[in-house]
Specification:
The protein is of the alpha/beta class and 447 residues long. The chain has 2 domains: 283 residues, FAD/NAD(P)-binding domain, CATH 3.50.50; 133 residues, no CATH class. The chain is 30% helix and 20% strand. The chain has 12 helices and 19 strands. Helix 11 crosses helix 12. The longest helix is centred in the middle third of the chain and has 25 residues. It binds flavin-adenine dinucleotide (FAD).
Length: 447
């Protein structure tokens, strides 16, 4: 590769804050709200034009699809997301659980409101590009925006970028599976013009189940209903209308009374790295092509979709897995599956796993505790990492990446960062009793 030397220059300090959160998905939103509620100055920066991460950008509305009668739920800001969406009139049933969906556009307004009510200082259209450090402590972040390159100085930084962008730039140890082992990326889309009654009648006669697509379950999941469609794509492939290995199946989610399928997750592309620019570009364009093929197949082979049309694409490619930090504790699949307990627990999460073909649904009330240590990079102080890039092995990621679990790590990181500022100790030495006490006050279940 050819290199040039970029001339060094002074850049303006655009802001100073106690806690800076970079990225505003389920983890970042929860981190910023939790930190602000502890009474410290909190700033949230997001590279796109809305908060919400995958929920608003990739239209992933199914935050609670695991929830059944026996589920023991994490409590905290994630449940507030659902309650607030209900208040906004965005309530629609998720088809395979006792939960409701968070519709993408409604959730944009919900998160605007929650961020404003919490008194968070915020910037949209602002990309965190570099970490500022003194010795082994992070001291802020360099951002790029239409205003150019600027610095935000912060006593504590929480990386909620999904890709551990800031931790990686700060020099924290990160790992990333090779392309062929990473989870797939998706272009989500929605359709209008669906005959809801006709489609639901077809589903009633041809119900999908989890056993159709999961390669490993705990047994009890096999016959649970799943809104997973294979038939239209199999027929289109048979008839040479879809290439082999493309669109092997996919999910429908909620349907409006006016015939809109708001979130169709039917494009799943493997072998791509969400931190590689060429892969991202390819995936956006290829994903749209595949979505159009999916709509053709739905129109031709799915009763109720005969007159369906493209309604919307997610505003960004949806990504599931890339870098993860190597933290003070690395969570294991065994811990997740065996109701692990930790002295530094910052919350709980039901035994819900979904990734790499492994699916366990929390129908039995089992849950595990989420340790603070998975958010603490080994080398860099005053930096915490929440969301899907926390520290853990492949199978633990099948649980930790779930949006509701990302709200647990987000809220835990937000409170821990704020408590460490108030107590005047670095995040690596924060008093976990103080953190747990503050979390409980915020309504979080610790054990
Ligand atoms: C198609 C699809 C379907 C899924 N289905 C489900 C499901 O049904 N249930 C479930 O629980 N999970 C599901 N997931 C997984 C889930 O969406 C993610 O694991 C979760 O959203 C991760 O949350 P996060 O906060 O870590 O990151 P994200 O939601 O990815 O949010 C990261 C945010 O940070 C911003 N950002 C990134 N880099 C920077 C930067 N350098 N500077 C500033 N901002 C930055 C992004 O724009 C984004 O807003 C799905 C994922 C996909 C793609």
């Amino acid at each position: 590769m050819k290199y040039i030397q970029e001339p060094s220059k002074k850049i303006p300090v655009m802001a100073e804050t106690d806690v800076l959160v970079v990225g505003s998905g389920p983890s970042g939103l929860s981190a910023a709200i939790a930190s602000a509620r502890e009474g410290v100055d909190t700033m949230l920066v997001e590279r796109y034009g809305c908060f919400g991460g995958n929920i608003t950008q990739a239209m992933v509305e199914s935050i609670g699809w695991y929830r059944h009668e026996g589920t023991v739920e994490s409590e905290g800001i994630g449940l507030e997301f659902e309650a607030q969406t209900r208040q906004f009139g965005g309530e629609r049933k998720e088809p395979q659980s006792i939960s409701q969906v968070l519709e993408a556009d409604i959730f944009k307004c919900v998160s605007d409101k929650m961020v404003e009510e919490a008194g968070i200082y915020k910037f949209l259209h602002c990309l965190g590009v570099e970490a500022l450090s003194e010795g082994d402590r992070i001291t802020g972040v360099i951002t790029e925006s239409k205003e150019g390159r600027q610095a935000i100085l912060a006593k504590r930084v929480i990386d909620c970028t999904g890709d551990a962008d800031i931790a990686f730039r700060a020099g924290a140890a990160c790992n990333k599976a090779p392309r062929n082992k990473l989870e797939g990326v998706s272009v989500s889309f929605g359709c209008s013009g669906v005959n809801r009654d006709r489609f639901l009648e077809y589903i009633k006669k041809n119900p999908g189940n989890l056993g159709q697509w999961a390669s490993q379950t705990a047994g009890k999941e096999e016959n649970l209903f799943s809104p997973y469609l294979c038939e239209p794509f199999a027929k289109a492939r048979q008839n040479g209308e879809i290439p082999e290995n493309v669109l092997t199946g996919g999910y429908w989610s909620s349907l409006t009374d006016t015939g809109e399928a708001t979130y169709l997750n039917m494009v799943y592309m493997l072998g791509l790295d969400p931190t590689d620019l060429k892969d991202l570009t390819f995936a956006e364009i290829e994903g749209r092509k595949q979505a159009m093929l999916a709509i053709k197949a739905l129109r031709k082979y799915t009763p109720g979709f005969e007159n369906a049309r493209l309604r919307t694409f997610g505003s960004s490619l949806g990504t599931r897995e890339s870098r993860k930090i190597e933290g003070r504790h690395s969570m294991t699949g065994d811990e997740v599956k065996n109701q692990a307990k930790f002295e530094d627990s910052i919350g709980i999460f039901p035994e819900f796993l979904d990734a790499y073909g492994v699916v366990i649904i929390p129908t039995t009330g089992r849950y595990f505790q989420v340790p603070y240590g998975i958010m603490v990079p080994k080398e860099i102080d005053n930096l915490l990492v929440a969301g899907r890039c926390v520290s853990g092995d492949r199978i633990s990621h099948a649980a930790l990446r779930q949006m509701m679990c990302c709200t647990v790590t987000g809220q835990g990181a937000g409170v821990a960062a704020a408590v460490s500022v108030k107590d005047g100790v670095p995040t690596g030495e924060v008093n976990i009793d103080h953190v747990q006490k503050a979390l409980k006050k915020q309504g979080v279940r610790i054990n």
